[in-house]
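Tip: read the tokens left to right.
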């Protein structure tokens, strides 16, 4: 059998796990804060919030924008089911747009045809790490007052015209699941530059807890 992925696990990785287990702090804590800090550095963004998965990151990003029942979210017809599930989780309706034959990403030329008064956001997916046509999508979103949320779960460190994917829309969402470019078994992250919006993401993600309560304990931004 040919595995989809075969992560390398050496002594350093094993010791890192033991260090956490020995510390007795198995949730959040300084290791998670360090991950968030390093991820902001490599993504060239102001803030990052670690999540339990890429799906959670997308779910939180939608909730942070108050997207819910009665709203429509435009997304690609060709993606892993988690992208669509995150829309269903908040009670919104996914509206599918076909893909470009040469990139397999959402076709911007077909987006405006499905926009209605109920449309709240475009959840675009940078499939297999290949960037969507962000210039066209950003222009459409601005024209119609829509939110752009980037599903960059497969696009760690990929770029579009010199910009990191995940930093062009309102929020960028990533996965650290085993098959991803950066993997740690499970996990994910949300990145962004808008402090108010990221505060809202943190509050949603942590059941109403302010991120400032956490920073008083462990220090870093998020």
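Filled-in amino acids:
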């Amino acid at each position: 059998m040919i595995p989809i992925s075969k992560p390398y696990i050496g002594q350093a990785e094993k010791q890192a796990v033991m260090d956490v287990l020995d510390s007795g702090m198995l949730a959040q804590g300084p290791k998670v804060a360090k991950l968030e800090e390093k991820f902001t550095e490599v993504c060239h963004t102001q803030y990052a919030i670690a999540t339990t998965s890429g799906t959670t990151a997308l779910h939180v990003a939608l909730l942070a924008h108050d997207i819910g029942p009665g709203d429509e979210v435009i997304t690609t017809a060709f993606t892993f089911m988690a992208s669509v599930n995150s829309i269903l989780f908040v009670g919104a309706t996914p509206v599918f747009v076909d893909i470009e034959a040469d990139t397999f990403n959402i076709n911007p030329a077909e987006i405006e045809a499905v926009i209605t008064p109920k449309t709240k956001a475009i959840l675009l997916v940078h499939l297999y790490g290949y960037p969507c046509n962000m210039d066209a999508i950003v222009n459409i979103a601005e024209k119609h007052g829509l939110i752009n949320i980037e599903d960059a779960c497969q696009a760690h460190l990929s770029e579009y015209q010199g910009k990191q994917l995940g930093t062009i829309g309102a929020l960028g969402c990533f996965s650290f699941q085993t098959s991803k470019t950066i993997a740690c078994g499970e996990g994910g992250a949300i990145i962004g530059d808008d402090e108010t919006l990221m505060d809202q993401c943190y509050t949603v993600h942590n059941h109403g807890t302010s991120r400032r309560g956490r920073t008083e304990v462990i220090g870093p931004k998020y």
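The first helix runs from residue 11 to 23. The chain has seven helices and nine strands.
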